[in-house]
Amino acid sequence: MINLLFFSRYAWMFSFPLLFCLSCGSEKDSRDSKGTSLSLESLRQGEKPRNVIFILSDDHRYDFMGFTGKIPWLETPNMDKMAAQGAHFPNAFVTTSLCSPSRASILTGLFSHSHTVVDNHAPVPDNLVFFPEYLQKGGYETGFFGKWHMGSDSDEPRPGFDHWESFRGQGVYYNPTLNINGEHISYEDSTYITDLLTEHALEWLRQRDKEKPYFLYLSHKAVHAEFAPAQRHFKKYEEEELVIPPSFYTSAPQVTGKRMDGNQTLEREGPGPEPYAGEDYYGEGRMPDWQKMQREGWHGVDYMYHGRMDFGEFFRRYCETLLGVDQSIGAVLDYLEEVGELESTMVIYMGDNGFSFGEHGLIDKRHFYEESVKVPFLVHCPELFESGKTIDKMVQNIDIAPTVLEMAGLKAPDHLHGMSFVPLLKGEESGWRDRIFYEYYWEYDFPHTPTMHGVRTDRYKYIRYHGIWDTNEFYDLLEDPYEMNNLIASPEHRDQIEELAHEIYDWLESTDGMQIPLKRTVKNRSGDHRNPGVF
Ligand SMILES: [Ca+2]
Q1: Structural domain boundaries, residue 168
Q2: 144: CA distance to ligand 1 center in Å?
Q3: How much distance in Å is there from the Cα of 59 to the middle of ligand 1?
Q4: Which chain residues have CB less than 5 Å from ligand 1, an ion?
Q5: How many domains are contained in the chain?
Q6: Which residue stretches of 10-157 are H helix?
């Protein structure tokens, strides 16, 4: 009796830890931010789950592949083969053009404002579910090889992978140290990272449990700056002519009439006491000020890497570094052919974000211009769809997770933002998206690119900057594919622009994106030449 009274009076003392434990749940349950189970509903009974190989490169822009003809001397026979025997998506986009946010979107199927990996430094939150976790639960064997880069300080194995080989942060091109299932192994004798990862991935495929379906995630360091080709490709393109884009000078003072150096001096004389406005201020093409300023910064053609890099050398080494990735694709396709699985295996090749090579006077990525947001996107699976397709519909990095889950016969969780593109491969286009949305959050290390949101339809693009006094942008991509004539003030497009501005908020509101994730950073800015070495 006494015991019972004691218990009822002090029940809260016991129930509190109990509630705490319930809210913790099992480790797996607590990792699922949306409260769903890792066991997914089956889409089809009795159908064999398909093996999938996902090959990701770093900073490979959408049009630097031999078959596109963009760079006349660039040879990528294996990417060409994937396009000829599979499908090429010329309109493939990332939702945020930066390594870590894009990788998190690939692995979770979520926009950056949802997974909250908005920069290249903060560690990935532990409440996210990576889609390979669902595959494991569905009976798959999974392997990860290469660059993870969500959080720079750890290379430890992450959930969702039975086999793990990775490195910290960006890694190195030559003589890397890999964390292989928790054990660090260092390589010497000019071991080249692209070759090493490919060899290890193929070795895993050869030795794995053949009773299970598999998913391989081969995540290259290449072609991230600072570019280092395989020795066999070094200077192969040394004598080739550079391809300079028409928009190379849009941000140049000679075109805009405006210098954006430390003094911010307007070179033109004003018409009177009123400050400049509109075209008089921004210049004829109405290019935003941040673009003009960046031209003279770390990621601009006039002061690349603070004067340490030559544009021609940069361009050529990038193309040469890409050849190693192409050969990696070739080795994977050769292996599949050798074991008789080339027809049945789905192979996906994509880049984690695009890259500027002089467009708008910029290098690198982050912004919403075509060269930054578009990525190479090739799918090979002759058993599933007709060869040699070009599919113009807009696909995104968030579509990878639902697509691979469908190949495993699993219904993607409802909270994912992406869509399976398998219907597009089979020629079913109805119900597909007709616009994509974009977000980039200002990063402390590289302060020259502002926070921005945007929307792009088949023809038009609207970019809205946040937290900066500058012009927004609107382009007619059909008339102006290089985005050199900003129509933001065009009376003819006014209603359309207003509608797109509302659509961005509709998108953010409907996907819980009305707040900007803030990440803790205390360090001096590496990309700020104006105020170096300060906090
Ligand atoms: Ca990248």
Answers
A1: 49-243+309-435
A2: 17
A3: 4
A4: 58-59, 99, 352-353
A5: 1
A6: 11-24, 27-31, 77-85, 99-108, 112-115, 131-137
Measure 98 CA to ligand 1 centroid, in angstroms. Answer: 5
10 Å CB burial of residue 13 (0-12, 13-18, 19+) is exposed
- pLDDT, one tens digit per residue, over 404-458 is 999 999 999 999 999 999 999 999 999 999 999 999 999 998 999 999 999 999 9
Record the tokens describing residue 377, joined without a space. Answer: 């996107």
CA of 329 to the centre of ligand 1 (A): 18
Q: How far is the CA of 12 from the centre of ligand 1 (A)?
A: 51
Whether 511 is in a domain gets the answer no
Task: Give me the numbers of helices (H) and strands (E) for the chain, helices first please.
Answer: 16, 18
Ligand 1 centre distance from Cα of residue 223 (Å):
8
CA 282, CA 339: separation in Å to the nearest integer? Answer: 60
Please report, for the domain that includes residue 201, its CATH number: 3.40.720.10
Output the CA 1–ligand 1 centroid distance in Å: 67
Asked if residues 259 and 253 have their Cβ atoms less than 8 Å apart, the reply is: yes
Q: Which residue is associated with the tokens 């391989």?
A: 216
Q: Quick one: residue 286, left, alpha or beta (phi over 0 = left, psi -120 to 50 = alpha)?
A: left
What is the distance in A from the centroid of ligand 1 to the CA of 266? 36
- Give the CA count within 13 Å in the CB-facing half-sphere of 117: 31
Is residue 340 situated within a structural domain? yes
Q: How far is the CA of 222 from the centre of ligand 1 (A)?
A: 9
How far is the centre of ligand 1, averaged over its atoms, from the C-alpha of 110 (Å)?
Answer: 17
- 357 lies in some domain: yes
Q: Is residue 386 part of a domain?
A: yes
User: Mind listing the pLDDT tens digit for each residue in 264-319?
Assistant: 444 555 555 577 889 888 988 999 999 999 999 999 999 999 999 999 999 999 99
Full-model pTM: 0.92
Neighbours of 284 (CB within 10 A): 14
Give distance in angstroms: CA of 353 to centre of ligand 1. 5
Alpha-carbon span 226 to 173, nearest angstrom: 9
